[in-house]
Automatic annotation (TrEMBL):
The keyword Flavoprotein does not apply. GO terms for molecular function: carbohydrate derivative binding; D-sedoheptulose 7-phosphate isomerase activity; zinc ion binding. The gene is gmhA. Gene3D superfamilies: Glucose-6-phosphate isomerase like protein, domain 1. This is Phosphoheptose isomerase. Catalyzes the isomerization of sedoheptulose 7-phosphate in D-glycero-D-manno-heptose 7-phosphate. Zn(2+) binds at H65, E69, Q176, H184. The lineage of its organism: Bacteria, Pseudomonadati, Pseudomonadota, Alphaproteobacteria, Rhodospirillales. The reaction produces a racemic mixture of D-glycero-alpha-D-manno-heptose 7-phosphate and D-glycero-beta-D-manno-heptose 7-phosphate. Keywords: Carbohydrate metabolism, Cytoplasm, Isomerase, Metal-binding, Zinc.
Length: 197
């Protein structure tokens, strides 16, 4: 063991902390709220309206992950679903951020793809990333439903979300891990309900 490793959590400690956040999420997040998020997404996609997904850093990967499951498949064979990742088009992101502002990179794409009755799903562990906040403001102006996956309290997204799924932690990586559980559940439910529709 090197001298500095004593200060860092062991893998066992890290897994224990992860389990604790997942357990608190299970015990505190109302199932009816999760069901409402599922309902909103099922309604939008069932009517051919888009699900737009955005986030930064690890949450950008999560946004890609979610849209990959829904455009392709999660567990079942079924039709493709109109899920669009706003965090993955490098040309759009770099051109818009370079010429205008990083703060508006998602809002601009919401303008491009929004349809009233669609859903914007934003992932932000702080709930305060300015580009996700701006995207929520634009989505609401354009008649979209907003669903947020955040950490404890929901930050600025709390006031801008029709459905707020806030993981009870302030630790970014552990919140992200709980987000993966929540969105895999969402994908499984959405897919099951839209199979054959
Ligand atoms: O993946 C991680 C940390 O696990 C980082 O890349 C993290 O996503 C970035 O610092 C984000 O910029 C954090 O933004 P947010 O979750 O507060 O919206
Ligand atoms: Zn990470």
């Amino acid at each position: 063991m090197d001298a500095s490793s004593a200060a860092r959590p062991s893998l066992t400690d890290y897994l224990d902390a992860s389990i604790e956040v997942l357990r608190k999420t299970r015990d505190t997040l109302p199932p009816a709220l999760v069901a409402e998020a599922v309902d909103r997404v099922v309604t939008a996609l069932g009517q051919g309206r888009p699900l737009l997904v955005c986030g930064n850093g690890g949450s950008a990967s999560d946004a890609q992950h979610i849209t990959g499951e829904l455009v392709g498949r999660f567990l079942k064979e079924r039709r493709a679903l109109k899920a669009i990742c706003l965090s993955s088009n490098a040309a759009v992101l770099t051109a818009w951020a370079n010429d205008y502002s990083y703060e508006s990179v998602f809002a601009r794409q919401v303008e491009a793809y929004a349809e009233a009755g669609g859903v914007l799903l934003g992932l932000s562990t702080s709930g305060n990333s300015p580009n996700v906040v701006a995207a929520f403001e634009t989505a609401r102006q354009l008649g979209m439903t907003t669903v947020a996956l955040t950490g404890e309290g929901g930050g600025k997204l709390a006031a801008l979300s029709d459905v707020l799924l806030a993981v009870p932690s302030r630790h970014t990586p552990l919140i992200q891990q709980a987000h993966i559980c929540l969105y895999h559940h969402l994908c499984e439910e959405v897919e099951a309900r839209l199979a054959g529709v």
